[in-house]
Write a structure and sequence with these properties.
By secondary structure, the protein is an alpha+beta fold. It has helices at residues 13-19, 22-54, 61-69, 80-93, 108-125, 127-141, 196-202, 207-211, 251-254, 292-301, 312-315, 376-379, 383-409, 422-431, 457-474, 491-502, 506-525, 527-530, 533-540, 542-548, 552-564, 580-593, 600-605, 612-634; strands at 98-102, 143-151, 160-167, 171-173, 187-195, 261-280, 285-289, 325-341, 344-350, 362-366, 368-369, 380-381, 413-415, 447-449, 569-573. The strands form 5 sheets. Strands 4, 5, 6, 7, 8 and 9 form a 6-stranded antiparallel β-sheet that branches. It has a 3-stranded antiparallel β-sheet with strand order 3-2-10. It is extended, with a radius of gyration of 35 Å.
Length: 635
C-alpha cells in the first residue's frame, strides 16, 4: 500500500464534479475493477494451475482417486521443478547489476555518481532480492510483479524506498497492452488483504469507520454494495447476509477484532492534465510548466537588455528584447491512485513519485509473451505450460511400470478350491510373494503360481518418449550442462556448452533484462526526490569526493539535470548496454593487440570502472615513479 498518499479529506474540483461523493467514487472503482478482473480470470485460473503443477500437484483428483481405489501406485516424478531451478540458477549465477554508463566522456563523473546512488537504493529497497523471486515466479506462472513504494517510518522527510515481490496474482493490468513495460495502459489495480489494525494505524482519521467493519464484505471481491455490521442488506442478498435483512458476521470473524483481514483495492490511473512547454531557440532549452502564468514568467525573465547604440540610449535604455521561443499547451499524463476497502475511501491523490515519475511503480517480468495473441491465456505463458503434457505422460508411464512390476512380483495363485484350508489360504494371500515361501496342499489337488507377465517393451518406450519430450518441447538440453572432468575443457568451451544448452530461452532472458532496465530508469528518475546534495555526499563518501574534486554546486547540477531530463547516459543491466565509449574502448584494445603501444591511462579513461579517477591517479603516480627511477638509473 502506498505509504506516501495524502489522507482522503475531500476530492479535487474535477473529481467532485465527476463523482459527487465517496459512494459514487467507490462504485466507479468497483465497476472498473470488475472489467479487468473478469477479463483476466481465465488466465488467473490457468496460471494458478501451472504454479501448483510445477510445484508437484500433478494428478487430477479423479484420476488419483481411481488409481488409489484399485490399489495402484500414484507416482509423481517432477521433472519441471528441477528444470525451472536449473534455468533460475543460470540467471542467478550470471546476475548483473543495473548500471549507469556514460555515452560521452563529459558524463563519466555524472554516471559514476548516479551508479553509486542506484547501488545505495538497492541496499535500502533490496529490489534485487525481490527480482530474484520474480524470475522463478514468472517462469512457473507466466508473469510476476514487483512494486516500489515509500515508507516514512524511518525517514519522515524523504521517505525510504522499499520494494515488495507481489507474485503473479493480485495485480490486474489491461491484457491488450502492446508495450512490455505496460506504459500504453492508463489503469492498473492491486488487491490484497490487510488487517484492520494496520489500516487504523495507517489512516487514524478513519478509525471510527474502520472500527464498524466486523466482516470483509469485499470477500472474494464480489464488489456488491459494501455494508457494515447492522446495515440492511436487501434481506439477505448481500455478502454477510442474514435472513432478517441485517448484515451480520460469523462469530469467529467478529472476535478477531483488529486482526480481521480486509480486502484493500488500489486503483492506479493516469489523469491527463494541461502542461505548458516552452522551447527557447537560442539556447536549445526546453522547459515544462504547470500553468501558463509560470511559462510567461520564465519568458519575461529571459528578456535581454540590448547594448546602447546611440547617446540617447545612455539616459534612456532601449526596450528589452524578448527571447526567441516556441510555447505549446499539451495534455500530459499524471499518475493518481485511489485506495478503498468495503466502501471506505482510504486515500485518493497523486502518486507519491510525482512529478518525477509519471508511470505506475509496478514492474512485471513476462517469461514468454505473444502480445498479438487474441486469447489472453496464450498471450502470457511460463515454462510450465508446455511441459504439463510430457509430465503427465511421465507420471502415468512410471506409475504403470511400477504396477506391472508389483503384479509380476505377486502375480497370484490358481488351484482347486479344497487345495488349502482356510487358514492356509489366508497365509498364502498375505505371504504368497515372500521369497522361498513353502506351501502345503492336500494330496491330489491342484495349486500353482500364475505365470507373471513380463513388463512389455512398449511401456518402457513410452516412458523414454516422455523424457525425450521435455527436451523437444523446451529446447533445454540439460545434458550439455554436465561437464566431463576427464576432458578438462577450457572456460570458453564450458561457456559455449552452457549457451548451447539454453539458447532457446534467450527471449525470456531478454525480457528479464528489459524489466531490469525499466526498474533502473525508474530509480534514476526519482533520485532528486530521495536525495539532496548532503545525502548524496554522505553516500559517495569523503574519499570519493576528494579524488573526484566534486563540489556541492556540481551535485546540485546533477540533480537538476535529472529533473530536466538533460543527461546522456545509458541505464541497463551491466554488460548489456553498448555505448560509444564501449565501442571506442574495443577499438583501442584491438590496436593494442595489433602491437600498437598505447598509454594505460588512455585505456583507463574509457573503462567504466568504479572510482575511475582514483584508479587513474594511482596509475599515473606509478608511471611517474617508474619514470623517475629510470632517470636516476641512467644518471
Amino acid at each position: 500500500m502506498p505509504n506516501d498518499l495524502q489522507k482522503f479529506d475531500g476530492m479535487t474540483d474535477d473529481d467532485q464534479k465527476k463523482y459527487g461523493d465517496d459512494k459514487s467514487l467507490v462504485e466507479d472503482v468497483n465497476r472498473r475493477f470488475k472489467i479487468l478482473r473478469d477479463k483476466k480470470a481465465p488466465w488467473n485460473k490457468l496460471a494458478k494451475e501451472d504454479v501448483a503443477f510445477a510445484l508437484g500437484n500433478q494428478w487430477k483428483p479423479e484420476d488419483r482417486a481411481t488409481l488409489e481405489s484399485q490399489g495402484r501406485p500414484v507416482l509423481t516424478f517432477n521433472k519441471i521443478k528441477p528444470m525451472i531451478e536449473l534455468v533460475t540458477g543460470h540467471v542467478l549465477q550470471n546476475w548483473n547489476r543495473i548500471k549507469v554508463s556514460p555515452e560521452g566522456g563529459e558524463d563519466k563523473i555524472f554516471s559514476e555518481v548516479m551508479d553509486k546512488l542506484l547501488g545505495h537504493l538497492n541496499k535500502l529497497s533490496t529490489f534485487e532480492e525481490q527480482m530474484e523471486l520474480q524470475f522463478p515466479g514468472a517462469t512457473r506462472a507466466g508473469e510476476a510483479w514487483i512494486e516500489f513504494y515509500l515508507d516514512y517510518d524511518d525517514d519522515p522527510i524523504f521517505g525510504t524506498l522499499k520494494c515488495d515481490y507481489l507474485g503473479p496474482f493480485g495485480v490486474y493490468a489491461d491484457g491488450d497492452l502492446m508495450k512490455y513495460n505496460a506504459s500504453d495502459g492508463d489503469e492498473l489495480f492491486k488487491v490484497r488483504k490487510i488487517s484492520k489494525g494496520k489500516l487504523k494505524q495507517k489512516y487514524p482519521d478513519l478509525t471510527d469507520k474502520l472500527e464498524e467493519l466486523g466482516v470483509d464484505n469485499d470477500e472474494a471481491l464480489g464488489m456488491g454494495i459494501d455494508k457494515v455490521v447492522g446495515d440492511k442488506n436487501d434481506y439477505g442478498l448481500e455478502i454477510g447476509k442474514s435472513k432478517a435483512g441485517i448484515t451480520t458476521s460469523p462469530t469467529n470473524q467478529l472476535e478477531t477484532g483488529d486482526s480481521l483481514k480486509l480486502t484493500v483495492l488500489e486503483r492506479w490511473y493516469k489523469k491527463y492534465v494541461d502542461r505548458w512547454f516552452v522551447y527557447f531557440e537560442g539556447v536549445g532549452d526546453l522547459k515544462k510548466f504547470d500553468t501558463d502564468a509560470e511559462a510567461e514568467s520564465e519568458i519575461q525573465n529571459r528578456y535581454t537588455q540590448p547594448p546602447p547604440t546611440t547617446p540617447d540610449h545612455i539616459l534612456t535604455p532601449p526596450p528589452k528584447v524578448p527571447p526567441k521561443y516556441i510555447k505549446k499547451k499539451v495534455k500530459t499524463p499524471e499518475a493518481w491512485v485511489c485506495v478503498k476497502t468495503n466502501g471506505i475511501v482510504l486515500a485518493h491523490g497523486k502518486s507519491g513519485f510525482e512529478p518525477y515519475y509519471h508511470g505506475f511503480p509496478f514492474f512485471r517480468f513476462i517469461f514468454s509473451w505473444a502480445p498479438e495473441a487474441a486469447d489472453d491465456t496464450l498471450k502470457t505463458q511460463g515454462l510450465t505450460r508446455s511441459l504439463k503434457d510430457p509430465q503427465i505422460e511421465k507420471n502415468k508411464a512410471k506409475s504403470q511400470f511400477l504396477h506391472i512390476l508389483n503384479t509380476s512380483a505377486n502375480s497370484g495363485w490358481v488351484g482347486d478350491d479344497d487345495a488349502l484350508t482356510a487358514e492356509k489360504k489366508l497365509e498364502l494371500k498375505n505371504f504368497g510373494s515372500t521369497p522361498g515361501i513353502t506351501v502345503w496342499k492336500k494330496p491330489g489337488s491342484q495349486l500353482e503360481r500364475i505365470q507373471p507377465v513380463a513388463p512389455d517393451l512398449a511401456n518402457q518406450v513410452r516412458e523414454k518418449a516422455a523424457d525425450d519430450a521435455f527436451k523437444e518441447v523446451t529446447g533445454i538440453n540439460a545434458d550439455l550442462l554436465s561437464i566431463d572432468a576427464s576432458s578438462s575443457p577450457s572456460g570458453k568451451a564450458i561457456a559455449l556448452r552452457i549457451r548451447q544448452a539454453i539458447t532457446i530461452l534467450e527471449p525470456a532472458f531478454k525480457n528479464f533484462q528489459k524489466t531490469k532496465r525499466h526498474v533502473g530508469e525508474f530509480l534514476f528518475r526519482i533520485v532528486p526526490m530521495l536525495f539532496d546534495s548532503a545525502k548524496v555526499k554522505k553516500v559517495l563518501g569523503a574519499e570519493y569526493l576528494k579524488t573526484s574534486d566534486l563540489q556541492d554546486a556540481a551535485i546540485e547540477a546533477f540533480l537538476i539535470m535529472i529533473e530536466d531530463g538533460k543527461y546522456n547516459v545509458s541505464i541497463a543491466e551491466a554488460g548489456q548496454s553498448k555505448t560509444f565509449r564501449d565501442e571506442t574502448l574495443e577499438t583501442l584494445l584491438e590496436m593494442v593487440k595489433s602491437g600498437m603501444p598505447l598509454p594505460p591511462d588512455l585505456l583507463l579513461e574509457f573503462m567504466d570502472i568504479p572510482n575511475s579517477k582514483e584508479v587513474l591517479a594511482r596509475v599515473q603516480a606509478y608511471q611517474q615513479q617508474a619514470l623517475q627511477a629510470q632517470t636516476q638509473q641512467q644518471r
